[in-house]
Amino acid sequence: MRRGIFIFFSVMFLLFSSPSESQSAEPNWSSISKKTITLFYPGQTSWEFLNSRDHGLGARNIKRVKKSCNKCHVDESGVFDLMADEIATGKKKKKKTKAPFEPKPLPGKKGFMDAEVQAAFDANFIYMKVSWKSIGASSKDATLAGENLADRISIQFNKKHKHFKKYGCFIACHDTNRYMPLSPSKDMVKANPYYSKIKRDEVKLYAFYTRNQKQDGKNKLWEWDDFIDKGSLTALTSEGMMDLWEAEFKGSKVEAEDEWIFEDRQKDKQGDLEASGGWKNGSYSVVFKRKLSTGDKYDVELASGDTITLGIAIHDGKMGGRQHYVTFPITLGIGAKGDIKAKKIN
Ligand code: HEC
To answer: How far apart are CA 2 and CA 35, in angstroms?
Structure first.
């Protein structure tokens, strides 16, 4: 009888385990080249700031969608021309408005940090590994996760949109987001038809092109509650949707979250993302794994031959909400050119 059950389960296993998934072994990371990426502390560097007179020549250039952030702020040898150290300590103020970039500086934070990135792909999956030096706060103390201070990494990406290619995550960061200087009251958000329908009382990240553009003197605004019409929104979805992968370190566990950003930031109901890793010898490392093609409209579909644009954000050492390190846009080539090249395996 027991033998019968064993044979039954063996046959079921052979019948239902998909050959493609069982063949996809984790990449041998020691054979894949590492790219060092620099992240910086942006404080409240919103899309509105970037398009305002406060950003001087930068704003005029962004209006014409000419140079990327990197072109003006990073030289050929990778050296940054950006006052991120002064932003992190709270010293740097916006020129015209005199508002500090960081009104609530965290003690001891530097302006820059480095991370190492590797990527690989096979017939079905893409794999991305990111590592960075850290004291491992939420790995040592899982209760930090309950205070929303878990160390974590988020990767935003998109394949097609011209603004994301040049300006990365900054296209989704607004003065009216939660934790930002002009965030609306909870009552105002709850009274708005879009947010009341999804039972929310705060405004999360949104791509600026999902709102109408207004002129405020010489500055531009994209009000949180001034959505473009439904038809235009639908037409923009495939080009303008950003995929968002997140991994949080909670004690010895790593939790993956598949999300998206478009007219709002939301969890993807179809979770296609896996993450593994942890903190060891003074460094975090995480490996993301996802099917190249998921058939989910809230995911950016990937394929060999694609070059996609990424923005990476890291919360490290008791950073909550908007307080994080971020990258300017980076390209990832999947069997194609890019700042990071995913290696074909298997
Ligand atoms: C055409 C060049 C140009 C582009 C493109 C540009 N910037 Fe700037 N940026 C500047 C200049 C010039 C300043 C200094 C402005 C001033 O103080 O008058 C500046 C200032 C800043 C500051 C304030 C800190 C500092 O070092 O002065 C931040 C933060 C910043 N830029 C972020 C960005 C981001 C993010 C992007 C892309 C979304 C971007 N910039 C795109 C030219 C540019």
So the answer is: 53
